Amino acid sequence: MSDLDAQIVIVGSGPGGSSFAEVACAAGWSVIILEKGSNHLVDAEPPYAAKQEFSNDELKFIYRHFLGPDPLVEPRTYRRSTADGERIHTGVVNNVPSTVGGGGPHADGKLPRFREEDFNLLSERGPIEGADVADWPIDYVDLEPYYGEVERGIGVAGAADANPLAAWRTDPYPMPPGADMFGATLSVPAAEKLGLHPYRAPTGANSVPYDGRPACNNCGFCSEYGCPIHAKGDPLALLRRALQTGNCELRAESHVTEILLDASGRQSTGVAYLDHLGQRHEVRADYVVLAGGAFETPRLLLHNEVANSSGLIGCNLMFHFQTMVVGGFAYSLHSHRGRSVTHLQDDFMVPTAEDLVAARSNGLPWFRGGTVEHGGALGPVFEATYQPVTDTTLRCAHQRCATGSGHSPCRAKT
Ligand SMILES: Cc1cc2nc3c(=O)[nH]c(=O)nc-3n(C[C@H](O)[C@H](O)[C@H](O)COP(=O)(O)OP(=O)(O)OC[C@H]3O[C@@H](n4cnc5c(N)ncnc54)[C@H](O)[C@@H]3O)c2cc1C
Ligand code: SF4
Asked: Which atom, in ligand 2's list, is nearest to the CA of 108?
């Protein structure tokens, strides 16, 4: 018997670490997951019940950082290069949730697949000077069966034929799409009038009871919140299945600071971490899996001066780049109801001949846009902060509906 603590130690319990844990534990490997954030998701002891700590509370999640990291307690810093000195900014820098489940509990789970071309951009579109455009070593055809497996594993609601620009797929989604948001019932026909192709977004939120979890009730506190009823396809299901094998141990509030190496300096032997009291511990394992997310994994590697033979660790990172176009209506869209976004459109991801002419006339060989989300304001406080309420805006959307009844917390119901 070896003196190892586990065969595998995983750093991070987000969608990446949890998926790995589920598969490894099912195959009989012993696993320890170390997560620096708190555990609000699942009891780490049998019977591994879902915790009941999430709520529709905008102050708690958005302004008091329930899913962490709290920029006051765990400030992040930023600099462009060493010439900037130690830092040019302290506070929020792309804070990604630090909690059991990682970004999963607070993401709203829009889960479209990559298209075939995404795997071969260099061959299909060509190089761009100053950018590292590369082909993947695998194609869509290699990944397609695994996309299906993941969609069934976490529970994705969608319609296979909804998006005319999507890649082919073998199996249907495990659930039909959920209800449309009111705002989307207005923006979708408007987009269609312009010749665009909005579609019901494949979403990691149960539209019907699935995998022992209830159907989403469209509470609306979805993006940036944990789901109070666990209808979301966050890592809860993956972690529970891993824990239920008896091969998995989950340690929250365990911040990995060091990758332990053997005498050659090339082989990992485990990791060291600080617990919530600042005490140092070591976990010895055959394999170390780094699943700390796109920021923290490179940071941990660079901090440990682990071999960076490609020189690429931490380079070329583009993180959730979003451009917002905001429009106002003379009545409430009730956008605090629904799954934050229910419709997407991919038209701008497929450049037209006109787009390519525009690119070339601006000195680029080509460009592509991204997915467009049809969404609304994220919450009542957010909306009130950014949209001054006037007599005009107080006209209720239900003047447009059949009942005219209004529903709480409709501000027009006076
Ligand atoms: C507001 C928002 C909305 C989103 N919506 C969507 C969406 O609709 N669809 C979609 O596909 N994606 C969405 N995402 C992105 C998605 O959440 C991430 O891509 C996903 O969570 C990445 O998973 P991961 O496991 O790689 O990393 P993460 O989810 O970031 O998990 C990494 C975990 O590792 C932990 N960790 C890091 N370093 C250490 C350390 N040193 N020691 C111990 N633990 C550590 C972190 O605390 C974290 O819990 C959204 C993200 C945000 C922020
Ligand atoms: S909208 Fe649905 S999936 Fe999202 S938090 Fe509410 S109940 Fe959960």
From this structure: 4
